[in-house]
C-alpha cells in the first residue's frame, strides 16, 4: 500500500494535475538540466532525441499511475510491480543526484517479493539457511501455544489507538489526493506522521544559479574591483567543471542553493548569514564549499550575491559555440551552457552587526 501511495498519490497525480508539460510530454526536455544537482549522466540524457524524451514521460506516467494498481492483482502482478518500481528508482538514481530519496523509495517495494520469490538468494542444501528456518518453524508449530497476557491486550489497544490516530491524520491528505486541485508540500502536521508531499509537480524551464562572490579590493564599488566566485562542492557554478556524482550522499547546502534561486534573499536570510561567515573566513562555513578563492590570503573585504541564468540547452541541435556565448554577453567555453549576470539580489558589502 505504501509503495502504491508513494508512486500514485505523491508522484503520478501531482504531475498529471500540475505542470502542463507533463500532459504535453515535454517535461523531460528540461528536467535533466534544471534538476537540483545534475550528475554526468544527466548531460548525456539531456542530449537524447525528442522522441526519447516523449517515451520517458509516457513511461513515467505508466509507472506512477498504472503500475501501482498491479499490487492488487495477485501474486504475479505484485511481483511485477515491485520489479518495475525498483527498476524505475534505479534509473532515477543513475540520472540525477536526488540524495537518498530514491533509495528509500525502493524499500517499500521490497515487500512485493515473498519468500518463494527470494528463495534463490539463500542456500537450499542440508544445513543451509532455508533448512534451518524450516526446522525452527516446525518446532514452533509443535510447541505449546502462547498464553495471552495483559501485556498482549495492552499492546493491541496501543496498536488500535495508533491506527485510529493515523487514520484521522490521513483525512486531509486523502482529500488533497482526490482533489482536482491537488497541492504539494504546502503544509506539514506538527506530529510529522502524515503529511502532503509531492515530487516534481512543476518543472522549471530555465536554470538560475545563486553565485556567491567576494573581493579583496579596498573599494568594492570601483570598476576595477576583482570579484571572485566561491565554488560549491557539487552545485553548478564553474562552466568548465563537469557535473559531480554524490548519490546517495547529500550536500544539504548545495541543495538549498537550488531552492534559493527561486526567491530573493529576503526569503532566505540564511544566505546573508553564510556571507557573513565567509567574510570572517569561518573554517566551518568554508568546509561546506568546494573552492575558496581567498585560500591562503586575507579574507575578502566584501561579499555579494548574484544570479546567473543558464539558458535552455536544446536537446538535439548542437550546443552554442564560444562566439554565440560572447554575442550574448556571457562567458564560458562550449559545449557547456552559457551564463550571464542578471543582477544582485543582495546588497554588496559586509554584514551588519549581529548577522
Automatic annotation (TrEMBL):
Pfam families from the UniProt entry: LMF1 (PF06762), LMF1_C (PF25179)
Domain Lipase maturation factor 1/2 N-terminal residue range list: 12-119
Keyword Signal in record: no
A single Gene Ontology CC term: endoplasmic reticulum membrane
A Gene Ontology BP annotation from the UniProt entry: protein maturation
InterPro entries cross-referenced by the UniProt entry: LMF, LMF1/2_C, LMF1/2_N
UniProt keyword list: Endoplasmic reticulum, Membrane, Transmembrane, Transmembrane helix
Chain spans, region Disordered: 299-355
Topological type in the membrane: Multi-pass membrane protein
Membrane-spanning segments: 157-178
Main location as per UniProt: endoplasmic reticulum
UniProt similarity note: Belongs to the lipase maturation factor family.
Purpose of the protein: Involved in the maturation of specific proteins in the endoplasmic reticulum.
Protein name: Lipase maturation factor
Protein's organism: Sus scrofa
Amino acid at each position: 500500500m505504501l509503495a502504491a501511495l508513494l508512486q500514485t498519490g505523491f508522484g503520478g497525480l501531482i504531475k498529471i494535475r500540475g505542470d502542463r508539460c507533463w500532459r504535453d510530454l515535454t517535461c523531460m526536455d528540461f528536467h535533466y538540466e534544471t534538476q537540483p544537482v545534475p550528475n554526468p549522466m544527466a548531460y548525456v540524457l539531456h542530449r537524447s532525441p525528442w522522441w526519447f524524451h516523449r517515451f520517458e514521460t509516457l513511461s513515467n506516467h505508466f509507472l506512477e499511475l498504472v503500475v501501482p494498481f498491479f499490487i492488487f492483482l495477485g501474486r504475479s502482478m505484485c511481483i511485477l510491480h515491485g520489479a518495475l518500481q525498483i527498476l524505475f528508482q534505479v534509473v532515477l538514481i543513475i540520472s540525477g543526484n536526488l540524495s537518498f530519496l530514491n533509495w528509500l523509495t525502493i524499500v517499500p517495494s521490497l515487500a512485493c517479493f515473498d519468500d518463494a520469490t527470494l528463495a534463490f538468494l539463500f542456500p537450499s542444501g542440508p544445513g543451509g539457511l532455508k533448512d534451518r528456518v524450516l526446522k525452527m518453524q516446525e518446532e514452533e508449530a509443535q510447541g505449546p501455544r502462547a498464553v495471552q497476557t495483559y501485556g498482549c491486550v495492552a499492546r493491541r489497544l496501543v496498536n488500535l489507538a495508533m491506527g485510529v490516530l493515523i487514520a484521522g491524520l490521513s483525512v486531509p491528505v486523502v482529500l488533497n489526493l482526490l482533489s482536482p486541485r491537488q497541492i504539494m508540500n504546502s503544509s506539514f502536521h506538527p506530529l510529522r506522521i502524515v503529511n502532503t508531499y509531492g515530487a516534481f509537480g512543476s518543472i522549471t524551464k530555465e536554470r538560475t544559479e545563486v553565485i556567491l562572490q567576494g573581493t579583496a579590493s579596498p573599494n568594492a564599488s570601483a570598476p576595477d574591483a576583482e570579484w571572485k566566485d566561491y565554488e560549491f562542492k557539487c552545485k553548478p557554478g564553474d562552466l568548465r567543471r563537469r557535473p559531480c556524482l554524490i548519490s546517495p550522499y547529500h550536500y544539504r547546502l548545495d541543495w538549498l542553493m537550488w531552492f534559493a534561486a527561486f526567491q530573493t534573499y529576503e526569503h532566505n536570510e540564511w544566505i546573508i548569514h553564510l556571507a557573513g561567515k565567509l567574510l570572517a573566513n569561518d573554517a566551518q562555513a568554508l568546509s561546506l564549499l568546494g573552492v575558496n578563492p581567498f585560500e591562503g590570503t586575507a579574507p575578502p573585504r566584501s561579499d555579494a550575491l548574484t544570479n546567473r541564468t543558464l539558458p535552455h540547452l536544446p536537446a538535439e541541435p548542437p550546443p552554442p559555440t564560444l562566439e554565440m556565448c560572447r554575442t550574448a554577453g556571457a562567458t564560458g567555453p562550449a559545449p557547456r551552457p552559457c551564463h550571464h549576470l542578471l543582477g544582485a539580489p543582495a546588497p554588496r558589502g559586509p554584514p551588519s552587526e549581529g548577522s
